[in-house]
Amino acid sequence: MKKTKSDTSYSEELGEWLKSEKNKRRDKNLVAFLAIKEDVEEALLKGFSAKAIWEHKVYLKEISFGYEPFLKFTKQQIINKRVANSNPSERSPPSKNGDKPIQKLKNQEEGTQPQNSGIAGFVYNPVPNKEDLF
User: Fold this and answer.
1) Number of domains in the chain
2) How far is the C-alpha of 9 from the C-alpha of 111, rounded, in Å?
């Protein structure tokens, strides 16, 4: 086993190297996202899904990172900043569904409320109607 020039152990040196490599990759991805941020924001406001935007930007080779970092950057750089700048009475707690904040952002910009689809849910009735039976 080779000794390194410094007195640090290999595991410490490896840990430092991994931290620096991870930060370089993250920084590169963030810079790439910031370059397309306005396009992403405009497309989200027009109703396009985040997945479709990401796929198109990868196809155009404007970004080369995965969907998960794309969503993370979208939430950090666009959605959370819009919510922070909005009126505190309009704020709602974040949901686990990724499309709801985008829909809320779109509705805030348009000044409309989400439309109800008018489809009623299924209601189970354990006692059948005799007319419905054959």
Assistant:
1) 1
2) 59
Residue-wise pLDDT tens digits, 16-31: 877 777 667 777 888 8
pLDDT tens-place string over residues 46-79:
999 999 999 999 999 999 999 999 999 999 888 8
Q: What is the pLDDT of residue 71?
A: 93
The answer to the question of residue 129 being in a domain is no
For residue 78, what are the contacts with CB-CB under 8 A and spacing of at least 6? Answer: 37, 40, 41, 44, 105
> What range does the domain containing 51 cover?
10-90+97-110
On whether residue 58 sits in a domain, the answer given is: yes
Is the pTM higher than 0.70? The answer reads no
Q: Which helix (H) or strand (E) holds 82?
A: helix 80-85
Q: Is residue 59 part of a domain?
A: yes
Q: Are 37 and 62 in contact (CB under 8 A)?
A: no
Nearest to 79 by CA among 115, 109, 55, 53: 109
Residue 134 lies in a domain: no
